[in-house]
Amino acid sequence: MMDIFICYRRVDSAASTGRLYDHLIRHFPKKRVFRDIEGIECGTDFPEKIANVLHSAKVMLVLIGPLWLNCTDTNGGRCLDNDNDWICKEIAVALNRNIAILPLLVADAIMPKADELPTQIKRLADKQAREIREQSWDYDVGQIIKTLYRLVPGFNTRVKKTSILFLFACVTLSVFFLKWYNNDFNYDDLTRTLKSIGITEINTIEPEKALRLFHNNNITTKVQLKHLIDNTIIISKLKKIYYDELKREQLDIIAIADYAPYLIIHNYSSESEEFIRDKVIKSDELDYSYLIDTLKSIGVSEIHLAKEDERILSTFKQSGIKTKSQLKYLIQDSHAIAKLKEIYYDELGRGIDGVAIAMYATYLHDRKVSRASEDDIRRTIHTSDEWLGRRTVAIPIGGFPNGTVIKGDGPTFYLIQNGSKLPIPDRDTHEFMGYPKSIRVKEPDLKTIPTGTPLRRMRKNDNGVWMPQ
What we know:
The structure is a single chain. The chain has about 475 residues and is an alpha/beta fold. Helix content is about 50%, strand content about 10%.
């Protein structure tokens, strides 16, 4: 039987709900406090379970944070106005059954007015709300627990006599726990904690940078980290800044490390928000170093063909890729990158370089890799200066010298060896050879050259060393 039902919206107050739940189960049996994460086993019918719990519940705690009233669903409509919104359904059932309801305001949220609520839950506005403030969390929760003792029959507030041995054991364990809890956290602790509140964009270019930033901002222990991520005001403000400026729907780990402590120090002032907004814009500007590291991370070893380092950066910006966020979303389009590699290999016999990604990957990405966009790029390559140096040639008298790479109208490249053409079996083997410049040969002439045994396939092992297959 569940006596206490916790109603909350995950996007709004998941962290605060978890913290409150931990306090409640220290005072009441865990099996009598319901929260959807702990209270529903895998495979259970969710609507049926909720209905059964509400049937036996004596008290409903409704956690209301800054986003509770106006958060939107995937269609852009307000969640509370959606007929299938479970928060609205749960509160409506509790009101109809005259279950005691305690609205709990977290993260400086304001109690909604009746005219802001759907018809079926307007009476929620008549309930006396309680605040749970960050600066007096333990006291505020303590007052709520006292109220719960009065509202739920059967809970005994009398403290049972505890043996000295048991008390000593509890104190000892607490000391060890606090010692562990206040230890410095490592990168695994950091990523695990952030993922628990839905932060999945973990920085991958330089993962240890985030850890250093947290330490530099005096967030060095597990308890400090927990208090930081439990501050829903900070997280929601940073999400808004990132969504406004970078069009993202969530933060990354670097943003929390660098900006969350700053907002706390400056009491979430509008000046501190604008300062961070300016920093976000500047920090997202695409620079040469970030560009090169990102291209290398997806295996683009031929960074550019030009002598000048800045040519590749300017080419990306001319193609509309001016920020790190735009570059990130471009290279995540693996279909566009793979298709461009295929086109470059077919037409030029080599892998793509950075300039090719800037000029052509954006074109493929914007057009969803259509057949028309592929053909446009093939025609562009055909008419480029590099292609003009690869015009079809006739077989010279005496044949091609050893080591020449030739290609007909088909997709296969050949290596000339002792008057025969040896098929290069695949792109990996061709890459192992260093993508030597190929010569186009008329198809009838190509057929006159004897075909030898294909070259042995080459592959890179896990250490990046080429090995024969």
